[in-house]
Amino acid sequence: MEQTKSGRGRRIGRRALIIGGAAAAVGTGAAVAGDDLSRLWWQVPGVDRPRVAGAVDATGARWVAASSANWRRADRPADYTIDMVIVHVTQGSFDSAVKVFQDPEHGAASHYVVRADGHVTQMIRELDVAYHAGNRAYNERSIGIEHAGFVDRPQDFTDAMYAASARLTAGICARYGIPVDREHIIGHVEVPGTDHTDPGEHWDWDRYMRLVRQAAARTARA
């Protein structure tokens, strides 16, 4: 893969190709309104979109920044198409997960961490590539959601956690046009090359997907 000056490989997404084509048309005399261009310029690969410090992508989430060593700056979905959500379990407490994701020596972090009471903390912007899947291609195309608890403790997966995580996943799917199915919403264990087993046999996929579909339907009606 060709590297940018920053050393970051970039794969151009479908949306970027469409916008790039529109920009080329403007250069050859196509009539495009100036206000449209002012909204779209940042979607061209290689141009960082405006960012607000502490901003979150999911309504109701609390921002706590992960160490910059645990993620890579990007401009998704302009440079990498987002078409997957990956479900994780922390194998520890909520507080310990937040702490290790802030540790530059840890080398990994997810975009979100969901607590037993349904509280959601966002630690990496969806724009950016989190080191959560153990597979570069999957990192680039996905959003990672950690759930506080242990894979062998079904009691850790509370009603509030399932509901909050389902709303979060439904919102992500709506933002990026991700199909609400098990091909696009997967567990860490399903990532090629992984040695992880989460979310484990006690994660109720049927229940979770039902809740995601219900949340998606409510979002569509809103």
Describe this protein's structure.
The chain has helices spanning about 15-25, 35-40, 95-100, 135-140, 160-175, 205-220; strands at about 60-65, 70, 85-90, 110-115, 120, 130, 140-145, 185. It has about 220 residues and is an alpha/beta fold. The protein folds into 2 domains: about 15-45, no CATH class; about 60-220, Peptidoglycan recognition protein-like (Lysozyme-like, 3-Layer(aba) Sandwich). The strands form 2 sheets. The chain has a 6-stranded mixed beta sheet, with helices on both faces. A hairpin with a 5-residue loop joins strand 4 (about 110-115) and strand 5 (about 120). Helix 5 (about 160-175) packs across helix 6 (about 205-220). Residues about 1-45 have low confidence and may be disordered. GO terms for molecular function: N-acetylmuramoyl-L-alanine amidase activity.
Which features characterize this protein?
6 helices; Lysozyme-like; 12% strand; hydrolase; N-acetylmuramoyl-L-alanine amidase activity; six-stranded mixed beta sheet; cell wall biogenesis/degradation; alpha/beta; 222 residues; globular
Mean of all residue-level pLDDT scores: 85
Task: Note the beta-strand portion.
Answer: 5-15%
What's the shape? Answer: globular
Largest sheet: 6 strands, mixed
> Would you report the number of β strands?
8
Instruction: State the order of secondary-structure elements, H for helix, E for strand.
Output: HHEEEHEEEHEHEH
Task: Kindly report the CATH topology of the largest domain.
Answer: Lysozyme-like
Please state the structural category: alpha/beta
Largest sheet strand order: 1-5-4-7-3-8
CATH architecture term of the largest domain: 3-Layer(aba) Sandwich
CATH level-4 homologous superfamily of the largest domain: Peptidoglycan recognition protein-like
* Domains, number: 2
Poorly predicted sequence stretches spanning 5 or more consecutive residues: 1-43
Number of helices: 6
Report the radius of gyration as a whole number of Å: 18 Å
Protein name: N-acetylmuramoyl-L-alanine amidase
Keywords: Cell wall biogenesis/degradation, Hydrolase
Catalytic activity: Hydrolyzes the link between N-acetylmuramoyl residues and L-amino acid residues in certain cell-wall glycopeptides
EC number: 3.5.1.28
